[in-house]
Structure formats: structure tokens, C-alpha cells
Design goal:
- Helices cover 42% and strands 21% of the residues.
- It has 224 residues and is of the alpha/beta class.
- It has 2 domains: 121 residues, Response regulator (Rossmann fold, 3-Layer(aba) Sandwich); 95 residues, Arc Repressor Mutant, subunit A, CATH 1.10.10.10.
- The chain has a 5-stranded parallel sheet with strand order 2-1-3-4-5, sandwiched between helices.
- The protein is elongated and about 55 Å long.
């Protein structure tokens, strides 16, 4: 997922960026409201972390403008002031959640994860990487005009890789997210399923989408 963090305090923005990147998210940072609006015009973000007190155009003004434009991406507001009336103003402007400063990074990450899960429920159900498509409602996959039959575990693996497109997924990350294990079973389980999945989505196609990054993990990406 791609997250835009709008925060003019460099130290705070850096802490947030590192915390979200540790979670495997793609993070962009900008220091003011006008820049945030411009970035939202040119880049698709899955969520916005938005400070209220910004130089120039403040966070509430940015939020109202995004909602007027019909942009429904989840927005988590940040503010050094935690008064009830300010929280109400933020929620009335269209915020999905509100976090007063100072905050724990773990709480920010948890709240953002909850918002993006909720947001994904109302967004398109079709995931696409190049000509590979996955319908998360029907669980049907196809590459171009070719339908791909997946087992339940292959589906979970492909969905996670497609949602993480462009990001190297470590073996342990796949074990945790696809198999729900919090330990390494010490087998070649992941390798076996990656091989099966590669045979289904890449075999017979000139352009390969699923790549092994030696010593790091696996990567699903569009051709460059």
C-alpha cells in the first residue's frame, strides 16, 4: 500500500516514515497542504496521514478539498491539540480517525492498518499487475485471456503478493501473512507454493511477473 504523510515537522515525519516502511508500506512525505493536494492529483494513495497544523494551507482545508473532489481515501488526522471541538471539526470535515500528539508509533500504525482494511472493503475488488488480474470477491484469477485455477492457499499467496506489488516479500513475512504462523516451520513450504504459483501465472507467457530475489525474498512486479 502507498501512504502519503503530510507533516511539516521533519523529525516527526521521519519517525512516521520509518515506522510505516517497517510494516512494508510505501511512504511518501510532503511538508505542506498545497503539496499534498498536488500529489493526490498525480498519485494514487491508499491512505493519508494528515497533520492539522501546516504552513500555508492547513490540514482541515486540505481534507475538505479532497472530499469536495470526491476522493474517499482513508484519512488519519494528527494534531498537537486534542480538544473535543477540534476532533469533532476534523471528523465533520471528513476524517476517518483522529490521533492527538504526542502518540505512540505503534498506535498510529495500528489505526492506519484498521483504516486501510475498512477502506479496501469499499474499494474496487480487482487487483491488477500488468495483465494479471485477481477478483477478490469471486477469487477468480486470469492472465490476459487465460483463466487461472487456484487452491485456497495459492489464492492467499497471490493476493498478498499482488497487494505488495513492487515490494520484496521476505520468506518469513509470507509465512506470517499467508500461513498465519509466527515461527519458521523449517521446511520448503514457501518455495513449493511459489513454484506452483509461478507455473500458473508465468508459464507460457513471455513476460515473467514473479521473481526470486536471492537472499531477500520474492517480488511480484510489472515489467519495466
Amino acid at each position: 500500500m502507498r501512504i502519503l504523510v503530510v507533516e511539516d515537522e521533519h523529525k516527526t515525519a521521519s519517525f512516521i516514515r520509518k515506522a510505516l516502511q517497517t510494516e512494508g508500506l510505501i511512504v511518501e512525505v510532503c511538508p505542506d497542504g498545497e503539496a499534498a493536494l498536488a500529489q493526490c492529483q498525480t498519485t494514487r494513495f491508499d491512505a493519508l496521514v494528515l497533520d492539522i497544523m501546516l504552513p500555508g494551507r492547513d490540514g482541515l482545508s486540505v481534507l475538505r478539498e479532497l472530499r469536495l473532489q470526491g476522493r474517499q481515501l482513508p484519512v488519519l488526522l494528527l494534531s498537537a491539540r486534542g480538544e473535543v471541538n477540534e476532533r469533532v471539526a476534523g471528523l465533520n470535515a471528513g476524517a476517518d480517525d483522529y490521533l492527538p500528539k504526542p502518540f505512540e508509533l505503534a498506535e498510529l500504525v495500528a489505526r492506519l492498518r484498521a483504516l486501510t482494511r475498512r477502506g479496501n472493503e469499499s474499494q474496487t475488488t480487482i487487483l491488477c499487475v500488468a495483465d494479471l488480474q485477481l477478483d477478490t470477491h469471486t477469487r477468480q484469477a486470469r492472465r490476459g485471456r487465460v483463466e487461472i485455477q487456484l487452491t485456497a492457499r495459492e489464492y492467499r499467496l497471490l493476493e498478498f503478493l499482488m497487494r505488495s506489488a513492487g515490494i520484496i516479500c521476505a520468506r518469513m513475512t509470507l509465512i506470517e501473512k499467508v500461513w498465519d504462523y509466527d515461527f519458521d516451520p523449517g521446511t520448503n513450504l514457501v518455495d513449493v507454493y511459489i513454484r506452483r504459483l509461478r507455473e500458473k501465472i508465468d508459464a507460457g507467457f513471455e513476460v515473467k511477473l514473479l521473481h526470486t530475489v536471492r537472499g531477500a525474498g520474492y517480488l511480484l512486479k510489472e515489467p519495466t
